[in-house]
Design a protein that fits this description.
Number of helices: 9
Largest sheet: 4 strands, antiparallel
Shape: globular
Order of helices and strands: HEEHHEEEHEEEHEEHHHH
Strand content: 5-15%
Low-confidence stretches: none
Number of strands: 10
Strand order of the largest sheet: 1-2-8-3
Amino acid sequence: MNKGNKDRPVLTAAMIKERALALGAGACGIGDIRHFVGDDIQHNPLSILPNATAVIGFGIPVPRGLYFAMRDKRQYFNYTSLGVKYTDESFAEIFLLKMGAMIEDAGYDACLQRSVPGFRVKGDKSTNPETARTYELEFASSVGDGKAVPDVIIDYNKAAVVCGLGEIGMHGRVINPKYGSFMRYVFIITDMPLECDEPFSGSLCDRCARCIDACPGRAIGEEGVDSWQCSVYYRGAHRSNPFMTDECLKDHPDREAILNGEMRFDKASAEAIYPYLDFLPKTHFGYLACLCAKACEIACYEHLKEVGKL
């Protein structure tokens, strides 16, 4: 490409941030690519754009009313439809295309990055509780020694921290100083020379462990989040699920342990019980209704409000 063409518009970091907020982002930060040097090539932005200079991060707020409606057992499906599916699959795509066009019109490359809900890189045995199925790209292969195996999926949590947008909490979600964990994140990897922000260095998560106590499936521990355990209780395998009936899992020998959150699940046992947890319809993108009501994130938000950190 003809970089630095005099006929191209001049862009600055401030202009990008101003445009992002005007288009609906709640937060925008720019991370120096040097913070990713030496990272695992399967999650490294430099594996996608080798001459990258920066990663631009954008936080898209999810209305907290959607969370509180689930907490109060009034409404569940709108969080899935609007807070997850629409935010990631519609709004984020249009937002990124507009921001990417702005950067490429200035003569630079913009590699747009949004959530990849149904994929895991080769070797990643975790899952995404929000989706009906997750596929590990186990049959992909590299085109040469030292090269990444497609598809490369960046580490969204690290990218958000590097861009100065927040801190990773015990519940595995990024906590933003204004919105808590009620945000979805998207990124642009670019070779545009930009003034970068410092990585987030504040202290939001005080390890109060309220997220651990709030999870109905005991999927969160000091060591992190068990995604397969989370996936079962995200789907509603617990007593707090208002759609639970006496017939659900009626003949299962471990029904009481499951409903009490005492049963431990791995990949095989989680997938085996999914067919019994069909309480609300899937969206046409395969996203599932959140029947744990995001209890961990709500507990985190309420605690941070109480102590004056939000």
